[in-house]
Amino acid sequence: MPNQQSPTHAKPRKGKSPAHLPTVQQMMTDPDEENAYALFARYDINSPIVATAVGVVLAAQRQSVNLTPNAAANRADMSAERLRSIEKGVSQPNISTFLCLCEAIGVDPRELFNRVLTYMRYPVGYVPVRNSQPDR
């Protein structure tokens, strides 16, 4: 029987929250992992980590200003379903959507993005450098 290989660029799953999200959330908030840093130089690995962090931070900020998902989505001119998907870490907002959401919940986008980086334990002053040799 031949080996079956998965495609190089798998399409993101839609629908329910991926099963690994609670694990990612716990890893990112575990006090024993004080120096944990979870990003890698691969989009398929980073995507759920970033989506989780953006969702958690966005939901916390929305709740801190006492907005329901419906009210925040209405202010941002988007569906409440889309906002819930972002807050659950199932999908990521593009930069335009991120800016609209920040305006809708009344927070400086720089502040919210810094909270996302802090949540991910992204090292302050860290400048990632990729290998200078091309991929083969």
How would you portray this structure in words?
- The structure is a single chain.
- The chain has 136 residues and is an all-alpha fold.
- 50% of the residues lie in helices and 0% in strands.
- It has a domain at 43-119: 434 Repressor (Amino-terminal Domain) (Orthogonal Bundle).
- α1 (21-29) crosses α2 (43-64), α2 crosses α6 (109-119) and α3 crosses α5 (95-105).
- The longest helix has 22 residues, at 43-64.
Mean pLDDT: 77
Number of helices: 6
Tell me the distance between the termini: 28 Å
User: What is the third-level CATH name, the topology of the domain at 43-119?
Assistant: 434 Repressor (Amino-terminal Domain)
CATH class of the domain at 43-119: Mainly Alpha
| Main beta sheet | none
Written as H for each helix and E for each strand, in order along the chain, the element string is HHHHHH
CA gyration radius, whole angstroms: 17 Å
Question: What portion of the residues fall into strands of 2 or more residues?
Answer: under 5%
CATH H level of the domain at 43-119: which superfamily?
lambda repressor-like DNA-binding domains
Roughly what percent helix?
40-55%
Structural class: mainly alpha
Give the uncertain stretches in residue-range form.
1-17
Envelope shape: globular
State the total count of DSSP E strands.
Answer: 0
| The CATH architecture of the domain at 43-119 | Orthogonal Bundle
